[in-house]
Amino acid sequence: MVYSDPPWVFKGRALYQLQLVKTEEAKKYIPSAFRIVSLFGYTLGGFYLARYSDSPVGAFEELVALAGIVWNPPLSCAWAARVYVNNSEARAHGRKHCGLPSRLASFAEVSTGASERRRRRTPPSWWHQGEADAGSASDASPKIVLHNNERRSWLQPWKGSSEALQAPVCSMDLPPGAGKDWAGPRIRMQLPSFSGAIAECPQLLQYACQLCTNVRPVPAAHVMADHSSSQEALGGILGGRPVLTLAFDDMEMMVSKPVVLKIHREQEAEQQTSQHALAWAMQN
After folding, report:
1. What is the DSSP string of 147-162?
2. Region Disordered: start and end of each range (predicted)?
């Protein structure tokens, strides 16, 4: 399966968790030519975790780690530090056509070792929501572990193409899935985003995700992230203090074609934009 002409339609469900991220941490992932919206040393980041049942490339999972909010008058949009997908076509499309710092990844379930009695008392997690056999699973509330499986030949060309990073990114304890009583109101909303400044797409892009979905507040997901000094470790982003967590159920998302934008800053900064973007692209 391949991506056709835009708009691209994705169906499934997602968790959207907003978290406080230190501005100094966000700067590691946002090109210095861009302004970061911050207050008292913090910006608003977090993550978007989706399980798509249908998309241009079929079913797959995605986690978008959001570094913070970027201001480019008259818009302020989220900036993705990393995008993890377990589909190689989705990875390639994200980098080439949407300017996203996509990585090939794996999402694995790890049993929490809960007793049978506790499993009977605890509803299935959001990860298994809607599955017919979720309640009879050996562990209906597993921990989800994300690994970066990016081939070294993409990040380190001097390495063999068969080698993979297999680096742990984070593990997540997810909130319970939706009950049968209340699915939340069905609304239409738009999630604007900025992207670009990577090797495949050095320009600054802006695109919009149009959602039609049932929305409900849920308890925050508990994220345990790698806090090493590597730029592939996202402890400072994913480990931020949760502010709000929303579940998007029965979601249909339409993604428009990204458009190239000009950075609106002082004249001197505008003249340096291409140099900043190129330098950042060399690192990503």
Report:
1. EE--BHHHH-TTS-TT
2. 111-142
Q: Largest alpha-carbon pair distance within the chain?
A: 65
**3-state secondary structure labels for all residues of 78-140:** EEEEEEEECCHHHHHHHHHHHCCCEEEEEEEEECCCCCHHHHHHCCCEHHHCCCCCHHHCCCC
Which residues, 6+ apart, have CB-to-CB distance to 214 below 8 Å?
183, 184, 185, 186, 187, 248, 249, 250, 251
State residue 210's pLDDT score: 96
- 63-99 pLDDT, tens digit per residue, is 999 999 998 888 888 999 999 999 999 999 999 999 9
Cβ neighbors of 224 (< 8 A, separation 6 or more) are: 170, 171, 172, 239
Q: What is the pLDDT of residues 182-205, one digit of tens each?
A: 778 999 999 888 999 898 998 889
> C-alpha distances in angstroms, 61 versus 54, 208, 213, 224?
11, 20, 18, 19
Phi-psi category of 111—alpha, beta or left, where left has phi over 0 and alpha has psi -120 to 50?
beta
Nearest alpha carbon to residue 211 among 195, 188, 231, 233:
188
Contact 16, 46 (CB under 8 A): yes
**Alpha-carbon span 37 to 30, nearest angstrom:** 12
Q: Which sequence spans correspond to the domains of the chain?
A: 8-283
Q: Are 127 and 109 in contact (CB under 8 A)?
A: yes
> Looking at domain 8-283, does it have CATH number 1.10.1740.10?
no
Quick one: tokens of 276? 């900043």
Residue for token pair 């984070």: 170
**Three-class SS of residue 47?**
strand
